Amino acid sequence: MATVLKVFDRWKEFLNERVQQAEHAGMKDETINKLAVQIGEFLSDKVDPENNEERVLKELWDVADENEKKTIARLMVKLVTPGIS
Fold this sequence. Notes:
Layout: H1 8-24, H2 29-46, H3 52-63, H4 66-80
C-alpha cells in the first residue's frame, strides 16, 4: 500500500476507484463514509507519510476527535468523488 501513497494525486485516484467500486456494489454513502474512517485509522497507524499532503492529513487525523475524524473521512471521499454527500 505504501507505493500507492507516494504521490498524493495517485492516492486520490486510488480512493476514487475504491469509492466507485463500493457504489457499484450498492453501498450507501453512510457505509462508504464509515469505511473511509476505518481506512483513515489504518493509514494513520500503519503508513508513514511520504509527502507533505499525507503528513498534514496524518497530523490532522492524530489530533481529531471521533466526530472530526468522520468529517475528515467524509471530506476525503467528497474530494475524490464530487456528488457524494
